[in-house]
Amino acid sequence: QKVRAEVLEHLEHLALVDFRDSEGVERLQRAIQFADQLHEVNTDGVEPMDSVLEDRCLYLREDDVTEGNCTKELLKNAREKVEEYFVAPPGIVLLIK
Amino acid sequence: RLRFQVSAALREGRVTPTELCQRCLSLIKSTKFLNAYITVAEEAALKQADESEKRYRRGQPLSVLDGIPVAVKDNFNTAGIETTCASNMLKGYISPYNATVVQKLLDWGAVLLGKTNLDEFAMGSGSTDGVFGPVRNPWSYSRQYKEKSVPKFHSEDTEANWVITGGSSGGSAAAVSSFTCFAALGSDTGGSTRNPAAHCGVVGLKPTYGLISRHGLIPLVNSMDVPGILTRCVDDAAVVLGSLAGHDPKDSTTIQDNFKPFELPNLTDVSKLSIGIPKEYHAPGLSSEILSLWSKAADLFKNAGAKVIEVSLPHTCYSIVCYHVLCTAEVASNMARFDGLEYGHRSDMNKSTESMYAATRREGFNDVVRGRILSGNYFLLKQNYENYFVKAQKVRRLIANDFVKVFRSGVDLLLTPTTLSDAVPYMEFIKEDNRTRSTQDDILTQAANMAGLPAINVPTALSERGLPVGLQFIGRAFQEKQLLTVAKWFEKQVKFPVIQLEEVKRHDHGVFQHQKSASFS
């Protein structure tokens, strides 16, 4: 089954990445077809695995500030900034095709 | 050229860190046509070498690594040095910090020569899909390869016949293979360290997930990524591992167990070892040459007294499909941070935030990356989440359990091929698209990432075409010492030949010019 046009558009919106051309769409089609092989596997009663370290306790540290004060450093890599703000174009307007 | 020898030479003053550094920098220049390095940090490296020299004069080297030139894959953050991930998205991005593994190398006194080339954002198995062009396998220029080429061709033919390094850590593998550094860092998510190691005839170690910090490694798949180690011998890999492993508070996925660096014993008796040969790794497309080598290796262990048994990892054939879904899903999430606002490329489009983001990402990412983001988002859609993403997570558990069962049955290590064949010529490689290639090439390496297990490529022999072929050992979680000990024994038995690089200085200019146009075509 081919992916419906609304789904394609929805994906482009979610990903903020475009398919660009029919090749991009075909690539997705092939990816789905490939992934469908997963359904050959019987996974009844099998729990999904999030992490290979699931049997261990995650390291948690104290909620203390130990570093920071590097605003200047971090802003260096941004193209548009004003004082200590990253500047973006107006946000409310949705993606214009 | 073993590091131990070099370290001894440095300690005894027979060579100075500065001389060593200069030699490597000069070699990098004369092997520029390999395109292994994206950035060479010459000034910084010489400064580090100078400081190392002062320490040696005082008799106070920081470690065995002090003064040793190393290279780092360009998806690790390096303070003050450009980190590009071979993508337009990060061209010009100067990291404000060092990845933990980079910091550790520097703290131990290593000299960072530069950042190595890769597939864009580490997506690929050829090191051919980055914006700085493909990496060339140094073995393309070896006497061993040229001698086997039919018909005997001239230097101009090398242009058409050079072979790939494999990927995605191809630059790091090529750098180590061509002697421009003594060790290099790569990353391994589906085989990206072991695959190029096999094709370039070097040792490639994928450590257990959770052993080495990922802080500062630009993430691809958070649940599978690990920093990888590339060296010319197993002992060197153990030394680098020893300097990098251990809990990092900045990476909560590193285990908290105390890690003790180790020296590898010289194993003489393998009779207590049980080596498993997973039958599913006799995968479709495996060259008869490699099959034969694998069999010979099994016999080697058998004849030395080890127990060698066939085992089964029944879900092996699904690991690539499973990886495909989990990888694209995590990629979709990880690539969301690239929006042009805080760092990296930013489009001039400024009609709205979203259109700026979209244009930035269109301009910054190549087709492979964009394709994976879109696929990943598809699998994560509400209507698909259970059927694809969660399903893949379940299959992942089955794959991981296969290994648990085999190791529980008394097997110490698994012996498998690393790649399906020796390195293919670039011209042939690019005929198939990236995903097809990755699918084919990752089949022998990917499952170890699924299960989080340590694995190592050991260069084994030359193929009929005169190119390196490696074999892989997969070990139990966090049992790197056993894995490396056996790998070292094996390395000693097979006596893999040293690459005989032809004198290429005279080709420099012509090749470089030609390569430039080939890179941007």
From TrEMBL, chain A:
InterPro entries, alphabetized: Asp/Glu-ADT_sf_sub_c, GatC
Pfam families: GatC (PF02686)
Entry's Gene Ontology BP terms: glutaminyl-tRNAGln biosynthesis via transamidation; mitochondrial translation; regulation of translational fidelity
Keyword entries, A-Z: Transferase
SUPFAM superfamilies associated with the record: Glu-tRNAGln amidotransferase C subunit
Cellular component aspect of the GO annotation: glutamyl-tRNA(Gln) amidotransferase complex; mitochondrion
Protein's recorded name: GATC amidotransferase
Gene field: Gatc
TrEMBL record, chain B:
Gene3D superfamilies tied to this protein: Amidase signature (AS) domain (3.90.1300.10)
Name this polypeptide is given: GATA amidotransferase
GO cellular component, one term: mitochondrion
Organism: Brachypteracias leptosomus (short-legged ground-roller)
GO MF terms, alphabetically ordered: ATP binding; glutaminyl-tRNA synthase (glutamine-hydrolyzing) activity; transferase activity
Domain of life: Eukaryota
Keywords: ATP-binding, Ligase, Mitochondrion, Nucleotide-binding, Protein biosynthesis, Transferase
Domain Amidase, residue spans: 24-484
InterPro entries per UniProt: Amidase, Amidase_dom, AS_sf, GatA
Keyword flag Cell inner membrane: no
GO terms classed as biological process: glutaminyl-tRNAGln biosynthesis via transamidation; mitochondrial translation
